[in-house]
Write a structure and sequence with these properties.
This protein has 768 residues and is α+β, with helices and mostly antiparallel strands. The strands form 7 sheets. The chain has a 9-stranded mixed sheet with strand order 12-16-32-18-29-33-34-36-35. The protein contains 18 helices and 36 strands. It has 3 domains: 191 residues, Jelly Rolls, CATH 2.60.120; 116 residues, Orthogonal Bundle (Arc Repressor Mutant, subunit A); 442 residues, no CATH class.
């Protein structure tokens, strides 16, 4: 697989971009500062090329002087982005265009694009259509065949990162056949000055007769001439006008039909020799030689390469695969707000400055939180300017694990967690459907769990900028219940999504354990006070929850069995931090709060504590910063599924670094979250660094199924290599040495779907 990625060091991106496009016979203008995008190319054993191009690409050009590459036509699925070709033909999302590589053309975009390009043999396609060239760009007509081709290409795009070359064999055949069918049945007519209308009509009649009699081993030019009352010489001229001969056309069509049979599931037991005989080949040796010459491998190897292994996939967390297909599943946030599902309350303007230079304050209540999702369409609760300080309250989504200690008599917490048979104050809890139509667990289905305060709009922030978040202070939220006044409490849940759940010593006894901890004022340690085993809970709306599958389900204390005297003589060092700090993703729609990404989010790195600074690339206007998932403590790995979950209040200062005037040189080229803490830089790698783009339409389901530490380590390695090359100007060889001898790589978390590995770089290594 050949690739270009924006994660390359900045000084290598320009040349690699053009080199990768050249593989496709394409050119582009210079890439601009702040460019974002990628190209990936897959080659099949038969020479087919499939490519995905994404990003803010201004133009793609084709010049008709590329030698052998002019032997193909590009079938282009325009998944995202609108624009026009140089001849004025417009394209929109969902269109398929046919671009002849023998012609010159330019594709211009008006917004970020996502394209899937599939090469189709030019001569074979044109011969089937009865013409010698495509005189202009074609947009596929609206026919059943065109729709079917679109579905296949969409599947290839969605599954792109899982494809290997063998996977292209069947789809390439199917797409070409469907395109031929669409153009033959479409209403558009295409003129070809080199062929008269009579010649075109004769050629279509002749090729239709060939299609009907492909199985006849004695089919010949003379037989067709007699049947059509045309001379053999005239027929030879017709094929010559289409840059082929009768024998070549006949052999090619027979080979095409034979290879379809080789791939047919119901014909896998049929010998290759019988398939050859069925399609008019009298000599199996001749068939095998012709097949190898045409497709680059023997018929048997082709059959083996075309078999695709199918494996059952079990959904772990996140949306079900395919949920993004239906608009009824992806609810419209604006509609939700209009229906009153997220009341709007505190919205101070930046002109309402606090008195006496006090920081702004955002309290946590039903009006200032969003539960379980991120979105660039959530109205901000506060507008601030770079340099402003803000005190932000957060609530842990695990407060219901002990309502008496973490919710009771706390007006903010009670307003968020209120849930009775008659009322549920914050209905939406996750990025799923509001009507709970898939699993019936509740609005949002729990596809995302964190209570997030915000978002906060930072004035002047634009995509491509870097938001700096200085964490000035963190304090645990004290219990408001007079019985426990003065103490704070936290919960750890060893859950079904935890690393341990598939690795119990006794696998016949899977279980979820909730442990409640206490911390006294100004203490540096937390102490476990009791635990209990999760037993099925029935929520106020009557839904039974066998496991911890939905955030904030009230726990019926009368049916749990508390266990005290646990973790005796053990104290947990306090490392208060916020597990989830994010700017709004650039993608539209609701995004599950669990998997982290380039926007930050659920990093779950304990180093993001008091005195540290977080840097996040901005993807949307105003940045729209949200925060939650307070942790009193956490170890690297977060192996049980959660940390020591606690409601926290933080004091922050926001700064902004414009992409064209970065005030800190190490931010140059930053493409993901970066923590600066205690004289160290902490870079983050994930199984999929930009999973919303990397995994396509079903990203919020598939990221949970496909994560691996190997991918996360590779991502952290690449992010660190790029960071050091961009910041320090080191060569790749120098950086590789430095990373091996002086950079610490660690497992951040294996709990968040998109698993994380971090790299720690000591700043004092650098003497200048």
């Amino acid at each position: 697989m050949q690739t270009f990625t924006e994660l390359l060091p900045l000084d290598q991106q320009e040349i690699r971009w053009h080199e990768t496009l050249a593989v496709l016979g394409l050119e582009s203008g210079p890439i601009s500062p702040g460019f974002g995008g990628d190209i990936k190319i897959v080659n099949s054993p038969c020479g087919a090329i499939l490519a995905r191009i994404r990003g803010n690409v201004p133009t793609l050009r084709r010049t008709p002087t590329r030698g052998n590459s002019a032997s193909s036509v590009l079938s282009v699925l325009h998944s995202d982005g609108i624009g026009t070709f140089s001849d004025g033909v417009a394209f929109a999302a969902g269109d398929i265009s046919l671009c002849d590589q023998a012609s010159g053309w330019t594709m211009s975009f008006q917004q970020e694009c996502c394209l899937l390009l599939l090469e189709i043999p030019r001569a074979r396609l044109l011969a089937r259509l009865g013409r010698t060239r495509l005189q202009r760009i074609m947009i596929m007509p609206q026919t059943v065949s065109a729709h079917s081709a679109r579905l296949i290409m969409r599947t290839l795009l969605d599954e792109f990162d899982k494809l290997d070359g063998a996977d292209l064999i069947t789809p390439k055949i199917a797409v070409m056949e469907l395109i031929v069918g669409a153009l033959q049945s479409g209403a558009e007519k295409y003129n070809d000055d080199s062929i008269t209308q009579v010649q075109s009509a004769h050629f279509k009649r002749v090729t239709a007769m060939i299609e009907a009699r492909l199985t006849q081993s004695d089919l010949s030019l003379s037989l067709i001439a007699r049947q059509e009352a045309l001379s053999e010489r005239y027929l030879q001229k017709l094929f010559a006008l289409h840059d082929t001969t009768f024998s070549h056309y006949l052999r090619t069509r027979r080979l095409d039909r034979a290879r379809l049979d080789l791939l047919a599931e119901n014909l896998q037991a049929k010998p290759v020799g019988q398939i050859a005989f069925t399609w008019g080949f009298r000599d199996q040796g001749h068939f095998s030689r012709s097949f190898r010459k045409e497709f680059g491998m023997s018929p048997r190897a082709y059959r083996i390469a075309g078999r695709r292994a199918t494996t059952a996939v079990t959904l772990v967390r996140g949306r079900p695969v395919g949920a993004a297909e239906a608009s009824t599943i992806i609810d419209n946030l604006a509609a939700d707000e209009a229906a009153g599902t997220r009341p709007t309350g505190l919205k101070p303007l930046k002109s309402e400055l606090p008195a006496n230079d006090e920081p702004f304050h955002v309290a946590a209540n039903r009006d200032t939180v969003h539960w379980g999702y991120l979105s660039n369409r959530i109205p901000p609760v506060l507008h601030v300017s770079p340099g402003d300080r803000v005190r932000i309250e957060t609530l842990t989504q695990h407060a219901s694990d002990d309502h008496e200690r973490m919710i009771k008599d706390d007006p903010g917490a009670e307003s968020v967690f209120l849930w009775t048979r008659e009322q549920k104050n914050v209905n939406r809890r996750g990025a799923g459907p509001l009507d709970a139509s898939i699993f019936g667990r509740g609005a949002g289905e729990g596809f995302g769990v964190h209570i997030l305060t915000g978002p906060i709009h930072i004035d002047g922030a634009e995509p491509g900028d870097i938001l700096e978040v200085q964490i000035l202070d963190i304090e645990p939220r004290p219990s408001a219940n007079r019985k426990f006044r003065g103490s704070s409490f936290a919960s750890n849940a060893s859950t079904w999504w935890g690393y341990q759940y598939s690795d119990f010593i006794d696998p016949s006894d899977p279980r979820e354990i909730v442990t409640i901890f206490e911390i006294e004022p100004d203490a540096q340690w937390a102490q476990a006070i009791y635990s209990y085993r999760w037993v099925a809970q029935t929520d106020p709306f009557g839904v039974r929850h066998e496991i911890i599958d939905y955030p904030g389900v009230p726990v019926d204390r009368s049916i749990i069995k508390k266990r005290t005297g646990i973790l005796q003589d053990i104290r947990i060092p306090i490392r208060a931090h916020f597990g989830c700090m994010a700017v709004a993703p650039g993608e539209e729609g609701m995004v599950d709060s669990v998997p982290p990404g380039k926007f930050g989010g659920n990093l779950d790195n304990w180093r993001a504590g008091k005195g540290s600074t977080l840097y996040l690339p901005v993807s949307t206007r105003g940045a729209l910063f949200s925060i939650g998932d307070g942790h009193l403590a956490q170890g690297d790995g977060e192996v049980s599924g959660t940390a020591l979950e606690c409601s926290l209040t933080g004091l922050f200062r926001f700064d902004l670094h414009k992409r064209d005037a970065l005030k800190k040189p190490f931010l140059r080229g930053l493409a993901g979250p970066l923590i600066e803490a205690g004289g160290e830089f902490v870079l983050h790698g994930f199984s999929y660094p930009d999973y919303l783009q990397d995994l396509g339409r079903d990203a919020q389901a598939e990221v949970y199924q496909k994560s691996s530490l190997n991918r996360a380590l590779r991502s952290a390695f690449r992010a660190t290599r790029k960071f050091l090359m961009d910041w320090r100007g080191l060569t790749e060889d120098e950086v590789t040495t430095l990373m091996s001898v002086a950079v610490d790589f660690g497992i951040t978390q294996v709990a968040d779907g998109n698993w994380g590995v971090h790299a720690i770089i000591r700043r004092d290594m650098f003497t200048s």
